[in-house]
User: Fold these one by one.
Assistant:
Number 1:
Amino acid sequence: MGLSKEQERNIVENVIRLEDIALLWNDNCKMKNPERVKQIFNEFVMGGPDRLQVVSDFDYTITKQRKSDGSPVLSSFGILNACESLPTKFIEESNNLHNKYRPIEIDPHLPMDEKVQCMIEWWTKTGELLVGFKLEQSEIDAVASKYKDSLRDNSHKLFDTLNRLNIPVLVFSAGLGNSVISVLKQANVMYPNVSVISNFLQYKNGLLDGFQKPMIHSFNKNETALDRHKYYDLVHNRDHIIVMGDSLGDADMANGVPASSHIIKIGFLYDHAEESLEKYMNTFDIVLIDDQTMNVPLALLEAVEKKEAVRNI
Ligand SMILES: Nc1nc2c(ncn2[C@@H]2O[C@H](COP(=O)(O)O)[C@@H](O)[C@H]2O)c(=O)[nH]1
Ligand SMILES: [Mg+2]
Protein backbone atom coordinates (compact mmCIF):
# COMPACT_ATOMS: atom_id res chain seq x y z
CA MET A 1 0.00 0.00 0.00
CA GLY A 2 3.13 2.20 -0.02
CA LEU A 3 3.61 5.15 -2.36
CA SER A 4 5.53 4.67 -5.62
CA LYS A 5 8.86 6.43 -6.32
CA GLU A 6 7.00 8.92 -8.53
CA GLN A 7 4.52 9.60 -5.75
CA GLU A 8 7.35 10.12 -3.27
CA ARG A 9 9.03 12.50 -5.75
CA ASN A 10 5.78 14.43 -6.08
CA ILE A 11 5.65 14.82 -2.32
CA VAL A 12 9.29 16.01 -2.25
CA GLU A 13 8.41 18.58 -4.89
CA ASN A 14 5.40 19.57 -2.77
CA VAL A 15 3.17 18.25 -5.50
CA ILE A 16 0.32 16.32 -3.98
CA ARG A 17 -1.93 15.03 -6.72
CA LEU A 18 -5.07 13.36 -5.53
CA GLU A 19 -4.54 10.96 -8.44
CA ASP A 20 -1.50 9.66 -6.56
CA ILE A 21 -3.77 7.96 -4.06
CA ALA A 22 -5.29 5.26 -6.25
CA LEU A 23 -7.69 4.20 -3.47
CA LEU A 24 -9.59 7.47 -3.87
CA TRP A 25 -10.39 6.57 -7.47
CA ASN A 26 -11.85 3.15 -6.80
CA ASP A 27 -15.51 2.70 -7.73
CA ASN A 28 -16.51 2.44 -4.06
CA CYS A 29 -14.97 5.83 -3.18
CA LYS A 30 -17.11 8.90 -3.91
CA MET A 31 -16.15 12.59 -3.55
CA LYS A 32 -18.60 15.41 -4.26
CA ASN A 33 -15.77 17.95 -4.55
CA PRO A 34 -12.37 16.35 -5.31
CA GLU A 35 -10.76 19.77 -5.73
CA ARG A 36 -11.74 20.71 -2.16
CA VAL A 37 -10.38 17.39 -0.86
CA LYS A 38 -7.12 17.99 -2.77
CA GLN A 39 -6.76 21.50 -1.36
CA ILE A 40 -7.31 20.41 2.24
CA PHE A 41 -5.15 17.31 1.76
CA ASN A 42 -2.29 19.56 0.58
CA GLU A 43 -2.79 21.70 3.70
CA PHE A 44 -2.48 18.56 5.82
CA VAL A 45 0.71 17.40 4.11
CA MET A 46 2.32 20.84 4.22
CA GLY A 47 1.16 21.40 7.82
CA GLY A 48 2.65 18.15 9.05
CA PRO A 49 1.62 15.82 11.89
CA ASP A 50 1.89 18.49 14.63
CA ARG A 51 -1.25 20.25 13.37
CA LEU A 52 -3.24 17.04 12.85
CA GLN A 53 -5.84 15.37 15.04
CA VAL A 54 -8.23 12.49 14.34
CA VAL A 55 -11.78 12.31 15.68
CA SER A 56 -13.47 8.97 15.08
CA ASP A 57 -16.71 7.30 15.96
CA PHE A 58 -16.37 3.76 17.35
CA ASP A 59 -19.35 1.55 16.52
CA TYR A 60 -19.18 0.53 12.84
CA THR A 61 -16.43 3.03 12.12
CA ILE A 62 -13.45 1.60 14.00
CA THR A 63 -15.29 -1.71 14.07
CA LYS A 64 -16.44 -3.23 10.79
CA GLN A 65 -20.01 -2.95 9.53
CA ARG A 66 -19.85 -6.57 8.41
CA LYS A 67 -17.41 -9.41 9.02
CA SER A 68 -16.00 -11.27 6.01
CA ASP A 69 -18.12 -14.30 6.96
CA GLY A 70 -21.21 -12.07 7.04
CA SER A 71 -21.70 -12.49 10.80
CA PRO A 72 -22.74 -9.31 12.67
CA VAL A 73 -20.36 -7.18 14.76
CA LEU A 74 -21.85 -6.30 18.13
CA SER A 75 -22.08 -2.60 19.01
CA SER A 76 -20.62 -1.37 22.29
CA PHE A 77 -24.12 -1.49 23.81
CA GLY A 78 -24.65 -4.88 22.20
CA ILE A 79 -21.55 -6.13 24.07
CA LEU A 80 -23.13 -4.92 27.33
CA ASN A 81 -26.43 -6.62 26.53
CA ALA A 82 -24.60 -9.91 25.88
CA CYS A 83 -23.38 -10.06 29.49
CA GLU A 84 -25.08 -13.08 31.03
CA SER A 85 -25.41 -11.77 34.58
CA LEU A 86 -27.67 -8.89 33.46
CA PRO A 87 -31.19 -9.26 34.90
CA THR A 88 -33.73 -10.52 32.36
CA LYS A 89 -35.85 -7.47 33.13
CA PHE A 90 -33.02 -5.18 32.01
CA ILE A 91 -32.52 -7.05 28.73
CA GLU A 92 -36.24 -7.04 27.93
CA GLU A 93 -36.74 -3.35 28.73
CA SER A 94 -33.47 -2.36 27.00
CA ASN A 95 -34.58 -4.18 23.86
CA ASN A 96 -37.99 -2.47 24.04
CA LEU A 97 -36.25 0.91 24.19
CA HIS A 98 -33.99 -0.04 21.27
CA ASN A 99 -37.01 -1.15 19.22
CA LYS A 100 -38.81 2.12 20.02
CA TYR A 101 -35.97 4.63 19.62
CA ARG A 102 -33.60 3.18 16.99
CA PRO A 103 -36.15 3.72 14.18
CA ILE A 104 -36.55 7.34 15.34
CA GLU A 105 -32.76 7.79 15.38
CA ILE A 106 -32.37 6.72 11.76
CA ASP A 107 -35.64 8.25 10.44
CA PRO A 108 -34.58 10.61 7.59
CA HIS A 109 -37.79 12.66 7.81
CA LEU A 110 -38.20 13.53 11.53
CA PRO A 111 -37.15 17.07 12.58
CA MET A 112 -33.77 17.04 14.36
CA ASP A 113 -35.05 18.74 17.54
CA GLU A 114 -37.64 15.96 17.91
CA LYS A 115 -34.96 13.31 17.36
CA VAL A 116 -32.65 14.93 19.92
CA GLN A 117 -35.42 14.88 22.54
CA CYS A 118 -36.05 11.19 21.82
CA MET A 119 -32.33 10.34 22.07
CA ILE A 120 -32.14 12.11 25.46
CA GLU A 121 -35.11 9.99 26.57
CA TRP A 122 -33.46 6.80 25.24
CA TRP A 123 -30.13 7.32 26.97
CA THR A 124 -31.83 8.56 30.18
CA LYS A 125 -34.15 5.55 30.39
CA THR A 126 -31.27 3.14 29.63
CA GLY A 127 -29.28 4.75 32.45
CA GLU A 128 -32.25 4.40 34.80
CA LEU A 129 -32.44 0.68 33.99
CA LEU A 130 -28.74 0.23 34.84
CA VAL A 131 -29.23 0.74 38.57
CA GLY A 132 -29.04 -1.50 41.62
CA PHE A 133 -27.32 -4.67 40.39
CA LYS A 134 -23.75 -5.94 39.99
CA LEU A 135 -21.87 -6.04 36.70
CA GLU A 136 -18.11 -6.62 36.74
CA GLN A 137 -15.92 -5.05 34.04
CA SER A 138 -14.39 -8.50 33.62
CA GLU A 139 -17.71 -9.73 32.22
CA ILE A 140 -17.74 -6.94 29.62
CA ASP A 141 -14.08 -7.76 28.82
CA ALA A 142 -14.97 -11.42 28.24
CA VAL A 143 -17.62 -10.51 25.66
CA ALA A 144 -15.46 -7.74 24.14
CA SER A 145 -12.61 -10.23 23.60
CA LYS A 146 -14.75 -11.90 20.92
CA TYR A 147 -14.74 -8.63 18.94
CA LYS A 148 -11.12 -7.50 19.30
CA ASP A 149 -10.52 -8.80 15.74
CA SER A 150 -13.53 -6.93 14.35
CA LEU A 151 -11.65 -3.69 13.76
CA ARG A 152 -11.46 -2.57 10.15
CA ASP A 153 -8.56 -4.13 8.22
CA ASN A 154 -5.33 -2.17 8.69
CA SER A 155 -6.67 -0.51 11.87
CA HIS A 156 -3.50 -1.63 13.67
CA LYS A 157 -1.32 0.00 11.01
CA LEU A 158 -3.40 3.18 11.25
CA PHE A 159 -3.20 3.37 15.04
CA ASP A 160 0.53 2.49 14.96
CA THR A 161 1.13 5.35 12.49
CA LEU A 162 -0.93 7.82 14.53
CA ASN A 163 0.99 6.82 17.65
CA ARG A 164 4.37 7.10 15.87
CA LEU A 165 3.46 10.58 14.63
CA ASN A 166 2.06 11.47 18.06
CA ILE A 167 -1.24 12.54 16.52
CA PRO A 168 -4.05 12.70 19.11
CA VAL A 169 -6.97 10.38 18.40
CA LEU A 170 -10.35 11.03 19.98
CA VAL A 171 -12.70 8.05 19.89
CA PHE A 172 -16.03 9.82 20.33
CA SER A 173 -18.82 7.31 20.96
CA ALA A 174 -22.44 7.61 21.99
CA GLY A 175 -22.14 3.92 22.81
CA LEU A 176 -20.84 2.34 26.00
CA GLY A 177 -17.31 3.49 26.87
CA ASN A 178 -16.60 0.44 29.06
CA SER A 179 -17.01 -1.77 25.96
CA VAL A 180 -15.17 0.66 23.66
CA ILE A 181 -12.05 0.77 25.83
CA SER A 182 -12.16 -2.98 26.38
CA VAL A 183 -12.18 -3.72 22.65
CA LEU A 184 -9.44 -1.16 21.92
CA LYS A 185 -7.25 -2.49 24.75
CA GLN A 186 -7.69 -6.12 23.75
CA ALA A 187 -6.98 -5.18 20.13
CA ASN A 188 -3.74 -3.56 21.39
CA VAL A 189 -4.47 -0.16 19.88
CA MET A 190 -5.21 1.78 23.09
CA TYR A 191 -2.02 3.86 22.71
CA PRO A 192 -1.19 6.89 24.92
CA ASN A 193 -2.34 9.26 22.14
CA VAL A 194 -5.83 7.69 22.12
CA SER A 195 -8.64 9.18 24.24
CA VAL A 196 -12.19 7.88 24.56
CA ILE A 197 -15.15 10.10 25.29
CA SER A 198 -18.34 8.10 25.71
CA ASN A 199 -20.94 6.96 28.23
CA PHE A 200 -19.29 5.14 31.13
CA LEU A 201 -21.01 3.06 33.79
CA GLN A 202 -21.26 4.63 37.23
CA TYR A 203 -21.13 2.54 40.43
CA LYS A 204 -22.30 3.19 44.00
CA ASN A 205 -21.45 0.80 46.85
CA GLY A 206 -20.38 -1.82 44.30
CA LEU A 207 -23.67 -1.72 42.40
CA LEU A 208 -24.50 -0.08 39.07
CA ASP A 209 -25.79 3.48 39.36
CA GLY A 210 -26.52 4.58 35.78
CA PHE A 211 -24.09 6.46 33.51
CA GLN A 212 -21.45 9.00 34.42
CA LYS A 213 -22.14 12.52 33.07
CA PRO A 214 -22.13 14.11 30.56
CA MET A 215 -24.52 12.07 28.40
CA ILE A 216 -23.18 11.52 24.88
CA HIS A 217 -26.01 10.61 22.50
CA SER A 218 -26.04 10.28 18.71
CA PHE A 219 -26.69 13.97 18.09
CA ASN A 220 -24.50 15.81 20.59
CA LYS A 221 -21.21 14.26 19.47
CA ASN A 222 -19.28 17.40 18.78
CA GLU A 223 -16.41 19.27 20.33
CA THR A 224 -18.77 21.67 22.12
CA ALA A 225 -19.71 18.59 24.17
CA LEU A 226 -16.04 18.71 25.19
CA ASP A 227 -16.47 22.09 26.88
CA ARG A 228 -13.98 22.23 29.77
CA HIS A 229 -12.95 18.63 29.02
CA LYS A 230 -9.18 18.11 29.43
CA TYR A 231 -9.02 16.65 25.90
CA TYR A 232 -9.98 20.02 24.44
CA ASP A 233 -6.80 21.64 25.83
CA LEU A 234 -4.77 18.95 24.09
CA VAL A 235 -6.17 19.52 20.62
CA HIS A 236 -7.71 22.98 20.36
CA ASN A 237 -4.65 24.29 18.48
CA ARG A 238 -4.54 21.31 16.11
CA ASP A 239 -6.49 22.81 13.25
CA HIS A 240 -6.11 19.98 10.71
CA ILE A 241 -8.74 17.36 11.49
CA ILE A 242 -9.66 13.98 10.02
CA VAL A 243 -13.20 13.03 11.07
CA MET A 244 -14.37 9.44 10.54
CA GLY A 245 -17.88 8.09 11.04
CA ASP A 246 -20.53 5.72 9.77
CA SER A 247 -23.65 7.78 10.50
CA LEU A 248 -24.59 11.28 9.42
CA GLY A 249 -24.51 12.53 13.03
CA ASP A 250 -20.81 11.65 13.19
CA ALA A 251 -19.93 14.32 10.64
CA ASP A 252 -20.45 17.06 13.26
CA MET A 253 -17.97 15.60 15.75
CA ALA A 254 -15.46 18.36 15.01
CA ASN A 255 -18.06 21.15 15.24
CA GLY A 256 -16.94 23.75 17.72
CA VAL A 257 -13.34 23.93 16.45
CA PRO A 258 -12.11 27.30 15.08
CA ALA A 259 -13.65 28.21 11.72
CA SER A 260 -10.14 28.48 10.29
CA SER A 261 -9.61 24.75 10.73
CA HIS A 262 -9.31 22.37 7.80
CA ILE A 263 -11.37 19.21 8.11
CA ILE A 264 -11.61 16.11 5.91
CA LYS A 265 -14.69 14.05 6.79
CA ILE A 266 -14.60 10.36 5.84
CA GLY A 267 -17.94 8.52 5.84
CA PHE A 268 -18.17 4.73 5.85
CA LEU A 269 -21.43 3.87 4.10
CA TYR A 270 -22.87 0.36 4.18
CA ASP A 271 -26.59 0.04 4.98
CA HIS A 272 -29.01 1.33 2.30
CA ALA A 273 -25.99 2.59 0.34
CA GLU A 274 -27.83 3.52 -2.86
CA GLU A 275 -30.61 5.56 -1.24
CA SER A 276 -28.25 7.17 1.30
CA LEU A 277 -25.37 7.98 -1.06
CA GLU A 278 -26.46 11.51 -1.98
CA LYS A 279 -26.94 12.55 1.67
CA TYR A 280 -23.58 11.03 2.60
CA MET A 281 -21.85 12.83 -0.29
CA ASN A 282 -23.40 16.11 0.88
CA THR A 283 -22.20 15.41 4.43
CA PHE A 284 -18.80 13.74 4.07
CA ASP A 285 -15.90 14.81 1.83
CA ILE A 286 -14.98 11.18 1.09
CA VAL A 287 -17.63 8.45 1.11
CA LEU A 288 -16.42 4.84 1.18
CA ILE A 289 -19.07 2.32 0.15
CA ASP A 290 -18.73 -1.09 1.81
CA ASP A 291 -15.05 -0.51 2.51
CA GLN A 292 -14.25 -2.54 5.62
CA THR A 293 -10.67 -1.19 5.84
CA MET A 294 -8.78 1.85 7.12
CA ASN A 295 -6.80 2.06 3.88
CA VAL A 296 -7.98 5.55 2.85
CA PRO A 297 -7.22 7.36 6.16
CA LEU A 298 -3.94 5.40 6.22
CA ALA A 299 -3.03 6.63 2.72
CA LEU A 300 -3.67 10.24 3.77
CA LEU A 301 -1.39 9.76 6.79
CA GLU A 302 1.31 8.03 4.74
CA ALA A 303 1.61 11.13 2.55
CA VAL A 304 1.90 13.33 5.67
CA GLU A 305 4.56 11.00 7.08
CA LYS A 306 6.53 10.87 3.79
CA LYS A 307 6.55 14.64 3.54
CA GLU A 308 7.61 14.95 7.18
CA ALA A 309 10.46 12.50 6.56
CA VAL A 310 11.65 14.55 3.58
CA ARG A 311 11.29 17.76 5.60
CA ASN A 312 13.54 16.32 8.29
CA ILE A 313 16.33 15.17 5.93
N1 LIG B 1 -28.31 -1.96 21.56
C1 LIG B 1 -28.38 -0.69 22.02
N2 LIG B 1 -27.90 0.28 21.22
C2 LIG B 1 -27.96 1.52 21.72
C3 LIG B 1 -28.48 1.84 22.99
N3 LIG B 1 -28.38 3.17 23.17
C4 LIG B 1 -27.82 3.66 22.03
N4 LIG B 1 -27.59 2.66 21.17
C5 LIG B 1 -26.98 2.74 19.87
O1 LIG B 1 -25.59 2.96 20.05
C6 LIG B 1 -25.12 3.73 18.96
C7 LIG B 1 -23.85 4.35 19.47
O2 LIG B 1 -23.45 5.35 18.65
P1 LIG B 1 -21.94 5.57 18.14
O3 LIG B 1 -21.74 7.00 18.44
O4 LIG B 1 -20.98 4.70 18.90
O5 LIG B 1 -21.96 5.21 16.69
C8 LIG B 1 -26.26 4.67 18.63
O6 LIG B 1 -26.26 4.96 17.24
C9 LIG B 1 -27.52 3.89 19.04
O7 LIG B 1 -28.20 3.37 17.93
C10 LIG B 1 -28.97 0.78 23.79
O8 LIG B 1 -29.43 0.98 24.93
N5 LIG B 1 -28.90 -0.46 23.25
MG1 LIG C 1 -21.13 4.44 14.65
Number 2:
Amino acid sequence: MSEAKRLAAVKAIDYVEDGMIVGVGTGSTVAYFIDALAPWRDRIAGAVSSSEQSTARLKLHGIEVIDLNTAGTLSLYVDGADECDPHKRLIKGGGAALTREKIIAEASKTFVCIIDASKQVPILGKFPLPVEVIPMARSLVAREILRTTGGQPVWRDGIVTDNGNVILDIHNLSIVDPVGIERELNQLPGVVSVGLFARRPADVVIVGAEPPIVL
Ligand SMILES: O=C(CO)[C@H](O)[C@H](O)COP(=O)(O)O
Protein backbone atom coordinates (compact mmCIF):
# COMPACT_ATOMS: atom_id res chain seq x y z
CA MET A 1 0.00 0.00 0.00
CA SER A 2 2.90 2.38 0.63
CA GLU A 3 3.82 2.35 -3.08
CA ALA A 4 0.31 3.65 -3.87
CA LYS A 5 0.77 6.40 -1.25
CA ARG A 6 4.11 7.33 -2.80
CA LEU A 7 2.63 7.49 -6.32
CA ALA A 8 -0.16 9.82 -5.12
CA ALA A 9 2.34 12.02 -3.28
CA VAL A 10 4.69 12.35 -6.24
CA LYS A 11 1.75 13.29 -8.52
CA ALA A 12 0.83 16.14 -6.14
CA ILE A 13 4.13 17.83 -7.07
CA ASP A 14 2.38 18.79 -10.35
CA TYR A 15 0.49 21.42 -8.31
CA VAL A 16 3.61 23.06 -6.85
CA GLU A 17 4.75 26.28 -8.52
CA ASP A 18 7.83 28.48 -8.20
CA GLY A 19 7.71 30.97 -5.34
CA MET A 20 4.81 29.26 -3.54
CA ILE A 21 4.40 28.74 0.18
CA VAL A 22 3.09 25.18 0.33
CA GLY A 23 0.72 23.99 3.06
CA VAL A 24 1.80 20.56 4.25
CA GLY A 25 -0.34 18.01 6.12
CA THR A 26 0.66 15.07 8.29
CA GLY A 27 1.01 11.30 7.95
CA SER A 28 2.81 8.60 6.03
CA THR A 29 1.48 9.72 2.61
CA VAL A 30 2.52 13.30 3.31
CA ALA A 31 5.98 12.05 4.33
CA TYR A 32 6.40 10.88 0.72
CA PHE A 33 5.19 14.30 -0.46
CA ILE A 34 7.74 16.11 1.72
CA ASP A 35 10.48 13.89 0.30
CA ALA A 36 9.30 14.70 -3.24
CA LEU A 37 9.26 18.41 -2.36
CA ALA A 38 12.90 18.37 -1.23
CA PRO A 39 14.36 19.13 -4.70
CA TRP A 40 12.08 22.21 -4.79
CA ARG A 41 13.57 23.71 -1.61
CA ASP A 42 15.24 26.60 -3.48
CA ARG A 43 12.31 27.18 -5.84
CA ILE A 44 9.50 27.50 -3.27
CA ALA A 45 9.26 30.24 -0.64
CA GLY A 46 8.77 27.67 2.13
CA ALA A 47 6.09 25.56 3.79
CA VAL A 48 3.42 25.92 6.45
CA SER A 49 3.36 22.75 8.52
CA SER A 50 0.41 21.06 10.26
CA SER A 51 2.41 19.16 12.90
CA GLU A 52 5.69 18.85 14.75
CA GLN A 53 6.21 15.59 12.85
CA SER A 54 5.97 17.26 9.43
CA THR A 55 8.00 20.26 10.62
CA ALA A 56 10.86 17.94 11.58
CA ARG A 57 10.83 16.24 8.17
CA LEU A 58 10.60 19.54 6.27
CA LYS A 59 13.57 20.92 8.21
CA LEU A 60 15.52 17.72 7.63
CA HIS A 61 15.23 18.47 3.91
CA GLY A 62 16.24 22.10 4.40
CA ILE A 63 12.75 23.43 3.57
CA GLU A 64 11.96 26.63 5.47
CA VAL A 65 8.93 26.35 7.78
CA ILE A 66 6.83 29.52 7.90
CA ASP A 67 4.19 30.55 10.46
CA LEU A 68 0.68 30.68 8.97
CA ASN A 69 0.15 34.17 10.37
CA THR A 70 3.08 35.37 8.29
CA ALA A 71 2.15 33.36 5.22
CA GLY A 72 -1.46 34.55 4.87
CA THR A 73 -3.64 32.82 2.27
CA LEU A 74 -1.92 29.80 0.73
CA SER A 75 -2.30 28.72 -2.90
CA LEU A 76 -1.87 25.03 -2.16
CA TYR A 77 -2.38 22.58 0.69
CA VAL A 78 -1.42 18.91 0.31
CA ASP A 79 -2.56 16.36 2.85
CA GLY A 80 -3.67 12.74 3.23
CA ALA A 81 -6.93 11.38 4.64
CA ASP A 82 -8.31 8.38 6.49
CA GLU A 83 -11.49 8.21 4.39
CA CYS A 84 -12.74 10.01 1.26
CA ASP A 85 -16.29 9.91 -0.14
CA PRO A 86 -17.37 10.55 -3.76
CA HIS A 87 -17.94 14.27 -2.93
CA LYS A 88 -14.30 14.62 -1.74
CA ARG A 89 -15.48 14.97 1.86
CA LEU A 90 -12.99 13.46 4.25
CA ILE A 91 -12.35 11.94 7.64
CA LYS A 92 -8.94 13.01 8.90
CA GLY A 93 -7.10 12.96 12.20
CA GLY A 94 -5.79 9.40 12.38
CA GLY A 95 -2.44 11.08 13.12
CA ALA A 96 -4.05 13.43 15.69
CA ALA A 97 -3.14 16.55 13.69
CA LEU A 98 -6.71 17.41 12.62
CA THR A 99 -6.96 20.89 14.14
CA ARG A 100 -3.90 22.37 12.48
CA GLU A 101 -4.77 20.48 9.29
CA LYS A 102 -8.21 22.04 9.30
CA ILE A 103 -6.83 25.51 9.88
CA ILE A 104 -4.41 25.22 6.96
CA ALA A 105 -7.06 23.68 4.66
CA GLU A 106 -9.31 26.65 5.45
CA ALA A 107 -6.48 29.08 4.68
CA SER A 108 -5.75 27.47 1.30
CA LYS A 109 -7.20 28.10 -2.14
CA THR A 110 -6.60 24.55 -3.37
CA PHE A 111 -6.60 21.46 -1.16
CA VAL A 112 -5.06 18.45 -2.88
CA CYS A 113 -5.77 15.23 -0.99
CA ILE A 114 -3.44 12.28 -1.58
CA ILE A 115 -4.69 8.78 -0.78
CA ASP A 116 -4.46 5.14 -1.73
CA ALA A 117 -7.57 3.36 -3.01
CA SER A 118 -8.32 1.75 0.38
CA LYS A 119 -9.39 5.20 1.68
CA GLN A 120 -12.26 5.56 -0.84
CA VAL A 121 -15.67 4.86 0.70
CA PRO A 122 -19.29 5.42 -0.41
CA ILE A 123 -20.31 6.78 3.03
CA LEU A 124 -17.94 8.17 5.69
CA GLY A 125 -17.81 6.65 9.16
CA LYS A 126 -16.24 3.21 9.07
CA PHE A 127 -13.01 4.84 10.18
CA PRO A 128 -13.62 6.14 13.75
CA LEU A 129 -14.19 9.90 13.58
CA PRO A 130 -11.48 11.79 15.57
CA VAL A 131 -12.53 14.76 17.71
CA GLU A 132 -9.93 16.94 19.47
CA VAL A 133 -11.14 17.91 22.94
CA ILE A 134 -9.91 20.15 25.78
CA PRO A 135 -8.71 17.64 28.46
CA MET A 136 -11.11 18.77 31.24
CA ALA A 137 -14.11 18.32 28.91
CA ARG A 138 -13.27 14.75 27.87
CA SER A 139 -16.04 12.98 29.81
CA LEU A 140 -18.62 15.70 29.18
CA VAL A 141 -18.03 15.64 25.43
CA ALA A 142 -18.05 11.81 25.40
CA ARG A 143 -21.47 11.78 27.10
CA GLU A 144 -22.82 14.37 24.65
CA ILE A 145 -21.50 12.44 21.65
CA LEU A 146 -23.19 9.29 22.94
CA ARG A 147 -26.47 11.16 23.49
CA THR A 148 -26.56 13.13 20.23
CA THR A 149 -24.92 10.88 17.63
CA GLY A 150 -25.45 7.35 18.93
CA GLY A 151 -21.79 6.63 18.08
CA GLN A 152 -19.38 5.22 20.68
CA PRO A 153 -16.67 7.68 21.72
CA VAL A 154 -13.36 6.05 22.68
CA TRP A 155 -10.58 8.04 24.35
CA ARG A 156 -7.28 7.64 22.45
CA ASP A 157 -5.51 7.02 25.73
CA GLY A 158 -1.93 8.25 25.96
CA ILE A 159 -2.17 10.60 22.97
CA VAL A 160 -1.70 14.31 23.53
CA THR A 161 -2.04 16.53 20.45
CA ASP A 162 0.48 19.20 19.44
CA ASN A 163 -2.00 21.64 21.02
CA GLY A 164 -1.98 19.85 24.41
CA ASN A 165 -5.44 18.29 23.99
CA VAL A 166 -6.90 14.77 23.86
CA ILE A 167 -8.66 12.80 21.11
CA LEU A 168 -12.00 11.00 21.25
CA ASP A 169 -12.58 8.59 18.32
CA ILE A 170 -16.27 8.05 17.52
CA HIS A 171 -16.93 4.46 16.45
CA ASN A 172 -19.98 3.04 14.66
CA LEU A 173 -21.12 6.17 12.84
CA SER A 174 -22.69 6.11 9.40
CA ILE A 175 -22.27 9.71 8.35
CA VAL A 176 -25.11 10.38 5.91
CA ASP A 177 -25.11 14.13 6.65
CA PRO A 178 -21.41 15.06 7.06
CA VAL A 179 -21.98 18.84 7.06
CA GLY A 180 -24.70 18.49 9.72
CA ILE A 181 -22.62 16.25 12.02
CA GLU A 182 -19.58 18.49 11.60
CA ARG A 183 -21.65 21.53 12.59
CA GLU A 184 -23.33 19.74 15.51
CA LEU A 185 -20.12 18.36 17.03
CA ASN A 186 -18.29 21.67 16.56
CA GLN A 187 -20.87 23.34 18.80
CA LEU A 188 -20.23 21.16 21.86
CA PRO A 189 -18.34 23.12 24.54
CA GLY A 190 -14.90 21.55 24.92
CA VAL A 191 -14.61 20.42 21.30
CA VAL A 192 -11.63 22.05 19.60
CA SER A 193 -12.25 20.53 16.17
CA VAL A 194 -13.79 17.57 14.39
CA GLY A 195 -11.94 15.44 11.86
CA LEU A 196 -14.73 15.81 9.30
CA PHE A 197 -13.77 17.87 6.28
CA ALA A 198 -17.25 18.32 4.82
CA ARG A 199 -17.88 22.06 4.95
CA ARG A 200 -14.45 22.46 3.37
CA PRO A 201 -13.86 19.28 1.34
CA ALA A 202 -10.80 18.59 -0.82
CA ASP A 203 -10.70 20.29 -4.21
CA VAL A 204 -8.63 17.59 -5.89
CA VAL A 205 -8.17 13.97 -4.82
CA ILE A 206 -5.25 11.96 -6.15
CA VAL A 207 -5.54 8.19 -5.78
CA GLY A 208 -2.17 6.47 -5.94
CA ALA A 209 -1.96 4.04 -8.88
CA GLU A 210 0.14 3.50 -11.99
CA PRO A 211 -0.78 5.98 -13.47
CA PRO A 212 -2.29 8.03 -10.60
CA ILE A 213 -6.02 8.80 -10.77
CA VAL A 214 -6.91 12.49 -10.39
CA LEU A 215 -10.49 13.20 -9.25
O1 LIG B 1 -5.28 13.10 9.00
C1 LIG B 1 -4.15 12.69 9.08
C2 LIG B 1 -3.27 13.00 10.23
O2 LIG B 1 -3.96 13.68 11.25
C3 LIG B 1 -3.58 11.86 7.99
O3 LIG B 1 -3.68 12.57 6.79
C4 LIG B 1 -4.37 10.57 7.88
O4 LIG B 1 -4.37 9.92 9.14
C5 LIG B 1 -3.79 9.65 6.81
O5 LIG B 1 -2.54 9.20 7.22
P1 LIG B 1 -1.64 8.26 6.31
O6 LIG B 1 -1.19 9.08 5.15
O7 LIG B 1 -0.51 7.86 7.22
O8 LIG B 1 -2.46 7.06 5.88
